[in-house]
Amino acid sequence: MALVPYDENLLPSLVKLHAASSDFRFAERSIRLAQDWRGGGVAAVVWDAAVVMCMYLELGHVNLKNRTAIELGAGTGLVGIVAALLGADVTITDRSLALKFLEANVKENIPSDLQGAVRVSELTWGESLERYASGGYDLVLGADIVYLEETFPALLRTLDHLSSENTEVLLACRIRYERDERFLSMLGNRFSVQEVYYDSERDVHIYSAVKKKTKPEL
């Protein structure tokens, strides 16, 4: 079930979310992602934040070659797929209910020679984090994952666990409500956060966060 109200007559601009698939061109490849709003809700459609994140990655602002990346709340998998096509070794994650749909999109869009560089894995924020290497990733990616305030503590624990002081966290999101600003403030307690990109047409911000260095004990 979708987590936000939707009425086709009231919000015609969101009709694209009801399309059975969505087509993109990134990393010199055509990408077609299946969508299923009615069956999978917000996790089964492509949101603008994911598109803007992919644009940002494709512009070369981040070095992806031979780097380890993990995508949180991947949904249809667009960001993780593009990161892999641009040279990263990627773990693409979401909750267990979304995995079958996510796996199908990854299989459809990752060429055979890159299959070994991509894996789909279950990750519910804040749970069983020991399954993932502490500080074991160069990049942590998230597109439109900052919207439910009750998930903020678990998301912050997850980001903290996955990141070392050399990890860059990239979050693409709209700032819709005061709670979104509160999340950035909470993130700033453990990370140095700065806005690195803004798409005015889609009203999507990209924030870069790097874990603050801990002071050595005297």
TrEMBL record:
Cross-referenced Pfam families: Methyltransf_16
Localization per Swiss-Prot or TrEMBL: Cytoplasm
Entry keyword Transcription: no
Transmembrane feature ranges: none
Catalytic activity: L-lysyl-[protein] + 3 S-adenosyl-L-methionine = N(6),N(6),N(6)-trimethyl-L-lysyl-[protein] + 3 S-adenosyl-L-homocysteine + 3 H(+)
Any one Gene Ontology cellular component term annotated for this protein: protein-containing complex
Biological process, per Gene Ontology: methylation
Gene Ontology molecular functions: methyltransferase activity
Keyword hit for Hydrolase: no
Keywords: Cytoplasm, Methyltransferase, S-adenosyl-L-methionine, Transferase
InterPro entries: Methyltransf_16 (IPR019410), SAM-dependent_MTases_sf (IPR029063)
Domain of life of the native organism: Eukaryota
Assigned protein family: Belongs to the methyltransferase superfamily. METTL21 family.
Protein name: Protein N-lysine methyltransferase METTL21A
